[in-house]
Amino acid sequence: MKIVEVDELIIGAGLAGLTFGNTSISDDYSVAIAEMHFKAGGYATNFRRIKNTVAFDCSQHKITGLGENGNLRNALQRAGLWDKLQFRYFDELTTVCIKGQKIDLPADSAGIKATLLRYFPSQKEGIEKLFEDIQTHGYQNYMFARMLLGEYEINRYLLTDGRKLSNITTREYFNRLFNDPIIIEVMSSIAIYLGAVAHEANAFYFLHYLYAAFETKAGYVEGTSQVLADTLANAFKERGGQIFYRNPILSIDVKGDRIMAVNAQKCTFLTHKIVATCSPHILMKMLPQDCIPDSFQESLDNLKIGWGHISVYLILDQAPELLGLDKSEYLLVNHLGDNLNEKQLNDDTRYQQFTLSVTNYHLLDAQSGFAVQLTILDHKGQWFDLDKDAYLIEKKRIENLLIERALNTFPDMEGHIVFKETSTPRTNFRYTNSPEGSAFGYKVLPRENTRFLYNPPIQGLKFVGGWSTGPGYETSMCLGFTHAMLEKRKRVEELVV
Ligand SMILES: Cc1cc2nc3c(=O)[nH]c(=O)nc-3n(C[C@H](O)[C@H](O)[C@H](O)COP(=O)(O)OP(=O)(O)OC[C@H]3O[C@@H](n4cnc5c(N)ncnc54)[C@H](O)[C@@H]3O)c2cc1C
Questions:
Q1: Which residue owns the Cα nearest ligand 1 atom 45?
Q2: Which of 184, 225, 328, 441 could tie 61 with a disulfide, CB 3.0–4.6 Å?
Q3: Same domain as 117, residue 93
């Protein structure tokens, strides 16, 4: 077996691993990445169909934090990556379709507030309070990464109220602010960007995303998300980093509580340091079981695995703009809401009542072809138990159901779909190894605490990325940068001592 000696090994060439690698590597510090897939990106990958003429994104790459005040812009600039990327911006954040109305939410905070006030004048007091909370609690939570770097001082005055908000769900929070069920559903639908539903995600966490989306400028990388991943991968290699594709990590050798070697499918890495961007649940299975304290495993087992998703990829015979999709993205929201009971969560009700996003990829990037993507959250549900034939039949059934739902809002698309393909949580699992096909890490529920993940039981092991710090392009890249910076500082301090 080939031996590779390296100062630090990153598991996973997703956005977190690539940003960490680019920041951590230096002439006297070697870093390698082992990736199980054959290309870089993790969820930020694409695939092509119809003789390479149409490109589909696996995730959707609406990227926050790109404005002057954005943490992502700050991180990419400091990591020397910003100038390598081109972003595209749109006038709208999204268009929410509910009860026959299409509510265009513009891309800026003042515009969103004005729109909400125009549609829901009776909810003025709640809207004012929401925007005040976004500016205070949302901002404070958003600045967490900068606080770790010592660049933001916590406002202690806000902390007590912030804690209270983290003890309630987003839906409970909206119920306190509003008495019009439609504005509650409009605002709740935004949870899909966090891979969450409003009756689960804690309100403090949700407010940080509203700050990011409303205040820090959201955009799309030019080309699909694969361009972003490939750019970061190329920069890493130019800095001397090595990426080992098709090379899943299988097990880790530990002596005492120190990492000695990491065994991958094609080689053994000799290293004392691992940055794991895969699921901590999976990582724990790679370790000798006697070195995991029961208390750590128990805390891990108490976390709830987050939502997966279904995406239906469509190719039309003409530009989607000509068939009624003249905006970049729509959220189709059922006015009955998505707060479902156990039975509804497990039958087809979830496909009717969960928010369905419809993205016009042709408008995002004409090179993508006449591509439209439908995405809805889903859980492992029926997907993992079916045999191959039954799985394919079920996949077709749900695909048709979701297309029918999209056609209700965009009837002109009828008869113009020339290609369709669908991914499920089972597909996620196959390509990313994520437990239950989750696409968004662990659920950030009220009173949930994932901070223990910052102190794994093994010396030299670090968790970074969507699983430990919350999902999203900005979060994964920012915290990849932040944790690499903190480590670098520690290395310098150790040298001085
Ligand atoms: C449908 C969808 C839409 C989304 N839309 C948006 C959006 O619009 N905006 C946004 O900000 N975020 C969005 N997201 C979320 C975002 O894509 C992710 O949070 C982010 O890409 C996660 O990056 P990561 O590097 O932390 O993890 P991942 O991308 O999961 O990377 C982890 C990597 O580890 C690898 N790996 C796992 N196990 C092993 C092993 N044993 N050995 C080697 N490698 C291994 C995996 O193959 C993977 O490449 C979306 C996600 C989905 C699924």
A1: 12
A2: 225
A3: yes
